[in-house]
Amino acid sequence: xxxxxxxxxxxxxxxxxxxxxxxxxxxxxxxxxxxxxxxxxxxxxxxxxxxxxxxxxxxxxxxxxxxxxxxxxxxxxxxxxxxxxxxxxxxxxxxxxxxxxxxxxxxxxxxxxxxxxxxxxxxxxxxxxxxxxxxxxxxxxxxxxxxxxxxxxxxxxxxxxxxxxxxxxxxxxxxxxxxxxxxxxxxxxxxxxxxxxxxxxxxxxxxxxxxxxxxxxxxxxxxxxxxxxxxxxxxxxxxxxxxxxxxxxxxxxxxxxxxxxxxxxxxxxxxxxxxxxxxxxxxxxxxxxxxxxxxxxxxxxxxxxxxxxxxxxxxxxxxxxxxxxxxxxxxxxxxxxxxxxxxxxxxxxxxxxxxxxxxxxxxxxxxxxxxxxxxxxxxxxxxxxxxxxxxxxxxxxxxxxxxxxxxxxxxxxxxxxxxxxxxxxxxxxxxxxxxxxxxxxxxxxxxxxxxxxxxxxxxxxxxxxxxxxxxxxxxxxxxxxxxxxxxxxxxxxxxxxxxxxxxxxx
Length: 506
Fold this sequence. Notes:
- The protein is built from 13 helices and 15 strands.
- The chain is an alpha+beta fold.
- Strand 9 (216-220) and strand 10 form a beta hairpin.
- It starts with 17 loop residues before the first strand and ends in a 13-residue tail after the last helix.
- The model is unreliable at 1-17, 32-44, 66-71, 334-375 and 496-506 (pLDDT under 50).
């Protein structure tokens, strides 16, 4: 068997807790060793300036927020052990006080006392290290885990291939381009690097890649992206990660990295024609280089902007992350039970929606579960089967429509949740529905697939779908121009059987 990339095993130690990670056709499974304790559970990517606050600071969700939105039993256990007090620190203070007292009072026997304190200190240190440490052991004999490990390693290798890597934490638009070398956006960044590593207190039998980004540290594991901020730990599934890479022109005031491509030059102070402003004596010529920009985000608020000294490095890292997300979505779809009466093969894995949110027990009539806000109830779907084979396509169109004006009203979420309940035939928790709904794909390919699927359904199904979309668009009292435009285009696209006209641009 060939050696896997970045696979290493630390020296085995007796650790009281650990987790074995395996994989089968149903997905990843996490099995705790005896002695483990589990703590109680306490859309399109924006541009730099869009993601920044009015002050220019780029805020990203903390690990606490990410963990609260997607609680995970394994991560809760790891974090609980990482937060345990450092017993060795307390021992050092106590031992130091005893050593001072021994030297001052018992004289000749002080050497024996010091030797005993040192020997006991070694034992306390080892106990403290093992008491706070957890093991995460991946089944490297499993070909799926080995494949995902190689794909995750390609992300770090791509970022490390750039001679310089920066984390952008501040961006603000400027209109004073004359005094800023013609730049329209001013950014602040700090150098970082990608390299093999782990997190303190967690032992792995693999050597994943890690990237520090400000106060946080990203760890690319085979099954998820770990976010660690020094005290809190959160995990993001690759299928929920939004990734975008693009080349960008950057006016470099420092010396360009050795692998950067200089594509133009400009001046520190420019005139209206783009030439040097001769009113300034210290007006020096600056290189314009092509860098790669990699954006990572989630619907729960994670916002990471990395700048690579080469566009190729950012593109290769994005391709590897997208491939991981695609593989995760494909496995999720493969593990979903097929409908009882299939009319059409499900959408291709590239654009298939995320799994249905977890059903909950229906509330009793005496104490109905309150909705966050009042919203009209959708019409009953024209299908005796729940869920019908075209239900995912309907939810994709609903997700597309509520996002055309780049804002989602809470009444729209309540309406969509009720529509989901009618399609599935079982109650759905609103709290679990919202992140699932926001994570549905919204690209043009997903929209085309949904229209193509519904165009093969019965006329009453298409008519019912358009009626629900029109009701949804008017749920806040009026339809916006963008909503009217999309409704008209969808009506034309669904009017005839077959692929029909080109669907509107997402």
